[in-house]
Amino acid sequence: MQARVAVLGGGQLGWMLGLAGIPLGCEFTFLDPGAGATAGAVGELIVGALDDVAAALRAATNATVVTYEWEGVPAATARALESGAPVYPPPEALDIAQDRIVEKTKLRDLGIATAPFVAVDSLDDLHAAVDIIGLPSILKTRRGGYDGKGQAVLRDPADVDGAWPRLGAVASILEGFVPFDRELSIVAVRARDGEIRCWPAVENGHRDGILRLTRAPAPGLDDALQERAEAAIRPLLEDLEYVGVCCVELFDLGDVVLANEIAPRVHNSGHWTIEGAETSQFENHLRAILGMPLGSTAPRGPSAMVNCIGAMPDRDAILRIPGAHLHDYAKAARPGRKVGHVTVTAPEPETLEARLRPVIALCDRAVLP
Ligand SMILES: Nc1ncnc2c1ncn2[C@@H]1O[C@H](COP(=O)(O)OP(=O)(O)O)[C@@H](O)[C@H]1O
Ligand SMILES: [Mg+2]
Predict the structure, then answer these.
(1) Cα dihedral 233, 234, 236, 241 sign
(2) Which fold has domain 116-176?
(3) Is residue 1 scored above 70 in pLDDT?
(4) Checking DSSP bridges between strand 117-120 and strand 65-68, what pairing results, if any?
(5) Nearest CA among 91, 88, 150 for reference residue 120
(6) Beta carbons of 141 and 163 less than 8 angstroms apart
(7) pLDDT (0 to 100) of residue 25
(8) Residue identifier of the C-alpha nearest atom 12 of ligand 1
(9) Nearest alpha carbon to residue 263 among 96, 67, 74, 78
(10) Is residue 148 in contact with ligand 1, taking CB distance under 6 Å?
(11) CATH 3.30.470.20: does it fit domain 182-365?
(12) Is the CB of 103 under 6 A from ligand 1?
């Protein structure tokens, strides 16, 4: 039986949902403002803004289930579709992920540790918040930030007055600056019947605020660290009666992890699962929202994912590297844009590192046309 999946957003995440869902018997409709949206290659594309409820209703016509691949989707759009078909993950997850104060408050209420934080609505508030949190600290806009945009690090008192107007003098959050050893993330899936499965925690490296490299599982991952990572996502999925894939970004401080951000969708740090795990995050997201049994989240071995940022690397040079898998989103090259990724798999960590080095070099060498 064919299932009709309506997806709000039609970027590369929607495209990879489509690629995973076609073998499961799914058909897709995507809503995206761009006529050339990547996901148009794997389903019907309705061109429209994500706050255009009429266009969203068109995309959701005859849908078995509605989902979204971008956490910026207005919760009102998602809620407007609930009368026609189930919307998973629950739209409440959008309310939480779109506002950093609501997000961190939710985490804290669930007993999930975060950096210390204070809401800031004026320059006076900011000075008061710096007195509470101390320096260094990091000022972020409550809404709309991504890939490190909408943030300012405050290192000394002279930074404070300039940072406020630089971020637009908008509702913000001040967070303590976390001296983490490394950044991790945990991706998990919750089924309609409440079953939760987690992939192994992964290690993420960023460049200019953009995810650059994920190593899966995180090097040195042991049961204790995996448990700490899972403890930062399981209560959230249970509290929200979440259905689908979710990611929590984490700071690893050695003996403790702090939760930084919630992404209520498939996540860039889970792309390795396509070749690196028994079941990919995309397939398990669809299995979950369609009420199918979940697949195993076990890794097949060590793997790594390199984002292609700005421009694609030399295709054939990548394909000559054993264990390298190319994903080209067919997006125009542009500085800072994620245009593809390469996953590298290997039988053991040493071989992985040897294969990874030339992949990183080729991605670094990719130049804008
Ligand atoms: N409180 C913090 N302490 C130290 N570094 C931080 C903190 N918050 C964010 N960062 C750094 O900035 C990056 C982007 O911040 P994040 O909150 O994830 O926003 P975005 O939505 O842009 O991904 C993080 O991956 C981390 O490297
Ligand atoms: Mg982040």
Answers:
(1) positive
(2) Dna Ligase; domain 1 (3.30.1490)
(3) no
(4) unpaired
(5) 150
(6) no
(7) 97
(8) 148
(9) 96
(10) yes
(11) yes
(12) no
Q: What is residue 2's predicted lDDT score, i.e. its pLDDT?
A: 86
Look at the block and give the residue holding tokens 């009368």.
83
What pLDDT, in 10s, does the model give residues 41-92? 999 999 999 999 999 999 999 999 999 999 999 999 999 999 999 999 999 9
pTM for the full predicted model: 0.97
Strands across the sheet containing 3-8: 44-47, 26-32, 3-8, 65-68
- Answer yes or no: is the C-beta of 210 below 6 A from any ligand 1 atom: no
pLDDT at 315 over 90: yes
**Number of neighbouring beta carbons within 10 Å of residue 246:** 28
Task: With beta carbons less than 8 A apart as the criterion, state whether 295 and 279 touch.
Answer: yes
Extents of the domains making up the chain: 3-87, 116-176, 182-365
| CA 249–ligand 2 middle distance (angstroms) | 6
Cα of first residue to Cα of last residue in the chain, in angstroms, is: 45
**Does ligand 1 have an atom closer than 6 angstroms to the CB of 147?**
yes
Architecture of the domain made up of 3-87: 3-Layer(aba) Sandwich (3.40)
